[in-house]
Amino acid sequence: MERGVWQGRAWSADGCERSARCADGLTGPRVVRGRGVDEMPGDGVTTSKSRSKAGAGLKVERVWTTEGVHPYDEVTWERRDVVMTNWRDGSINFEQRGVEFPQDWSVNAANIVTTKYFRGAVGTPEREWSLRQLIDRVVATYRTAGEEYGYFATPADAEIFAHELTWMLLHQVFSFNSPVWFNVGTSSPQQVSACFILAVDDSMDSILDWYKEEGLIFKGGSGSGVNLSRIRSSKELLSSGGTASGPVSFMRGADASAGTIKSGGATRRAAKMVILDVDHPDIEEFVVTKAREENKVRALRDAGFDMDLGGADIVSVQYQNANNSVRVTDEFMAAVQSGGTFDLRGRLDGTVIDTIDAKPLFRTISQAAWECADPGLQYDDTINDWHTCPETGRITASNPCSEYLHLDNSSCNLASLNLMRFLRADGGFEVAKFVRSVELVITAMDISICFADFPTEKIGATTRAYRQLGIGYANLGALLMASGLPYSSDQGRSLAAAITSLMTGTAYRRSAELAGIVGAYDGYARNAEPHKRVMRKHAAANDEIKPSGTVATAVQREATRQWSLGNKIGDRNGWRNSQASVLAPTGTIGLMMDCDTTGVEPDLALVKFKKLVGGGSMQIVNQTVPRALRSLGYPEEQVEAIVEHIAEHGHVVDAPGLKPEHYAVFDCAMGERSIAPMGHVRMMAAVQPFISGAISKTVNMPEQATVEDVEKIYFEGWRLGLKALAIYRDNCKVGQPLSVAKKDRNAAVSVESVPAAVEKVVEKVVEYRPVRKRLPKKRPSETISFSVGGAEGYLTSSSYPDDGLGEVFLKMSKQGSTLAGVMDAFSVAISIGLQHGVPLETYVSKFTNMRFEPAGMTDDPDVRMAASVMDYIFRRLALDFLPYERRAELGIFTAKERAAQLAAEAEVEANTADLTAMASSAPVETRPEEPKTGPVAQPAQELRDVAAALPAPSVGSSTELLEAVIGKAADAPLCFTCGTKMRPAGSCYVCEGCGSTSGCS
After folding, report:
1. Under a CB-based contact definition with an 8 Å cutoff, are residues 167 and 71 in contact?
2. Which member of 108, 183, 399, 527 is catalytic?
3. How far is CA 78 from CA 83, 104, 105, 568, 855, in A?
């Protein structure tokens, strides 16, 4: 990399030179127009090295380690082979044998660390092969920098600090965010931050700088966010007299750039956030951008184009590489509540461009989110009310996952604690160890800013001057379940609030102590009073916690002490950090720590897959479940019976001996007993007052949710004091694989239809029983010639006299004997399966969208594009032999059917427009709201017996297992690296197979 690109680093051949300065202020004032940072002088402070002389340095005491015993000597080590295969063809895409890990580390955690975090070319002596090397590389860098910048009183304290960090990392007590593992201690730039916020002004130079800066961040595998509200709207004039393009037009260029760069990263895919203020004149255009593109995806998919995530034709769709959010104000939300109007203002002089009704705009926002999950909301006044540095500038933007909210052109490095490591066997919480662990982690995180490099000079200057940190946690859902507390309960929320308050209170107390040793952050002098005000707000919120139970009471009592002590020290010393905590997704690092749940999330499901040494996997019930049952007082015999029931059914309903009042303890994000959307919102509201930043979390909503439900969630988020909120409705994204709507097997049915339903299901079981039904000697058949990507072939399909497909033969022209034999064997296998009752739709669902060469254009007017020969064959068979209803569920239509759908949609839209026009001129008639009828209770034990007798679908990940249990497709993309179905992690997704994420951590 060229000198000067990464700020503050002088390069040497071995990459070992340190940053020339740390937190020594800026070289001069920086002026940025608009609502962001106005100027950031260094406030006349001196460097960290000189400031450290004012204090005596930290005295570090042992918490986890034993004097005279190295942490590595306390564990049993073993050698393993890590071999990752390609999901498409079984070929090996990663192999490193003989890696070294502690015996109690799971196979999954070891695989992820080996493939993601070990540095050096595979197969060379320089390649890391042991967890010891990885931890030593990182911890040694932190210790050296801590000594260099005066953090420790003596070398002995530095050694204890290093041993404590090593022990905690070795035993999965906490983890730094991924960029630390990627970069620290290597010859690469020492980037430690995962979250970045950029700024863009109303000038072409600034817009082009935005493209460049974003690209540099993406190249490093991190994500960034930006608020485009300073760019003038398409309703305003340029200085030349022409009309401005507006921010939405410039989003296209940034989206294309991100789409190109994200695929070339060596570490992980990047992510981005785009924000627009609600008073921007182009707000309505911004709101509907992604919803319109989803309609395009649907039309192109139905026309036969490959619109799967990562498909060949998905690149024609715009705005898909960013999360979109609207920044709403209290004024706007109050206008929504009262039915009032709201002004849209020009960007140049603030004049009113248009006045609109607030409610219709709020409905448009909710409608778009209902259709495609974007935009989310960010609550501007709440965010800035908790801002510690308002004298420097307003908070206008966030990182892609919305947990980091601070100044423009800044960054934040993250670390997360594993809460389950602090849960005692008797159900108590290790309060003292938790406090000491937070102290150590915060100290390390602050040290990292001293040696860190940054992608731009502006980001480096702001981060060194304001030293934003983001300590957080994972495994909250597992902790609550193991403690016998329902996630959606007052008891669960009070314990979560108390732990979060204790974490942030301790972090700020240590930050104030560090300020006395190495100095307050550079921008503290001008922001001293607002910073103190926010600290008092946190402490006051802590006093409002109503703990339920002895554990929550003890935690909240210690939190009160930490806030009181920290504020006293801060009044004297100031604080070292302008921000201390966030709640990140903890995707890859959560898997590295063997966490059952990520961030603030509840458990995804009660069953999951566990990888085994030597390959393979097994389905297990989460280990949190038996621990929770024991906490609730169940004897071992009942625990075993309940666990067996969960393993068989995937839920606790009707589990033998389990009391119905305990069902709620085992409620999960998805499944038979899923947590209601408002339960997620209330948990966020419980912990938000104790987080410096915000919370990365998406509120999942069922497919049946209405636009009104989305409005309620967004409005309650504002009323309950959240800083940011996003929703996701099942099956709302048609551009993602396996997200096409399917009929819910568990849907409620009327009592009158039960006998017919049972009869129909029983008949299907008999029809598909494994008894071969041979074709008659003389049977109808047809042969189709086809061409896929230039490769020609012939498909012969034979059917039973009653028109059921029973035989397939496939012949490819110009082929060798090996391929001919493979095709013949494949045809025989499919034919035997069909004759034994395997439904054709099962083959169609498995083989469509399979991608390999040859692929591309076909000569079939009904299937214009094919991802492979297999994709074309089974689409053609579906069109020839499946009824319309089944094909509609699979998203396979003829050309005439697609044309008819488009015509019908256009006619409906035209009629709707006419009705809307008529309604706007007609008097409004108010009617009492009709009572909503709830779903009929699940009837007839016979239905459950028959459903249980049906063969279980093949599953390969926890998300796919969940789909098999609840009978529908979960909206999660396939991993770009290994092809495994990903699972939610905050507002992002994480792959359980290789650890790849779509966002932070």
Report:
1. yes
2. 399
3. 16, 9, 10, 49, 45
- 389 flagged as catalytic: no
284 an active-site residue? no
Residue 394 has what pLDDT? 97
The number of angstroms, rounded, from the C-alpha of 753 to the middle of its chain's C-alpha atoms is 41
Contact 597, 680 (CB under 8 A): no
Complete edge-to-edge strand list for the sheet that includes strand 805-812: 805-812, 791-799, 781-788, 856-860, 863-866
- On whether the CB atoms of residues 887 and 878 are closer than 8 A, the answer is yes
Q: Is 149 left (phi over 0), alpha (psi -120 to 50) or beta?
A: alpha
Query: Which of 562, 448, 447 has the alpha carbon at shortest distance from 504?
Result: 562
Q: Does residue 799 sit in helix, strand or coil?
A: strand
Q: Where residue 999 falls among pLDDT bands split at 50, 70, 90?
A: low
| C-alpha 689, offset from chain centre | 22
Query: In Å, what is the CA distance from 253 to each residue of 29, 210, 313?
Result: 31, 11, 18
Within 8 A by CB and 6+ apart from 158, the residues are 60, 143, 146, 147, 151, 152
Q: Which residue has the higher pLDDT, 54 or 910?
A: 910
Q: What is the pLDDT of residue 27?
A: 31
Q: Residues for the chain: how many in total?
A: 1001
**In the chain, % of residues over pLDDT 90:** 53
* Closest of 94, 99, 71, 72 to residue 83, by C-alpha: 94
pLDDT average, residue stretch 132-145: 98
Beta bridge partners of 325: 275, 376
Quick one: CA dihedral 95, 101, 107, 113, positive or negative?
negative
Residue of 22, 401, 450, 668 marked active site: 401
Q: What pTM does this model have?
A: 0.75
Active site residue 413: no
Tokens 């339920």, residue located: 548
SS3 label, residue 162: helix
User: Does residue 846 have a pLDDT over 70?
Assistant: yes
Question: Helix 528-543 crosses helix 550-573 at what angle (to 10 degrees)?
Answer: 160
HEC assignment per residue over 3-40: CCCCCCECCCCCCCCCECCCCCCCCCCCCCCCCCECCC
pLDDT tens, residue by residue, 858-874: 888 888 888 888 888 89
Could you write out the DSSP letters of every residue in 712-768?
HHHHHHHHTT-SEEEEEETT--TTSTT-S----TT----GGGHHHHHHHHHHHHHHT
pLDDT in tens, 352-366: 999 999 999 999 999
Element (H, E) at 627: helix 624-631
Cβ-based burial of 816 (10 A; exposed 0-12, middle 13-18, buried ≥19) = exposed
| pLDDT for position 304 | 74
The three state secondary structure string of 351-381 is: CEEEEEEHHHHHHHHHHHHHHHCCCEEEEHH
Q: How do residues 959-993 score in pLDDT, each as one tens digit?
A: 777 666 666 556 677 776 666 778 788 777 888 77
β-strands 341-345, 323-328: how paired? Answer: unpaired
- String of DSSP letters for 645-674: HHHHHSS-TT-TT--GGGGGGG-BSSSTTB
Q: pLDDT of 892-951, one tens digit each?
A: 888 888 777 777 766 766 665 565 555 555 444 443 444 333 333 344 444 344 444 444
pLDDT at residue 41 is higher than 50: no
Active-site option among 164, 403, 601, 672? 403
Q: Could you state, in order of their start, the residue ranges of all structural domains in the chain?
A: 779-897
Angle subtended at Cα 203 by Cα 199 and Cα 207, rounded to the nearest 5 degrees = 50
CA distance 417 to 601: 14
Q: Alpha-carbon distance 883 to 353, whole Å?
A: 54
Q: Which residues pair with 581 in a beta bridge?
A: 471
Rounded to the nearest 10 degrees, the angle between the axes of helix 358-372 and helix 330-338 is 100
Distances (CA, A) of 313 to 296, 307, 318: 11, 6, 11
Q: Which residues contact 591 (CB under 8 A, 6 or more apart)?
A: 108, 109, 112, 990, 992, 995
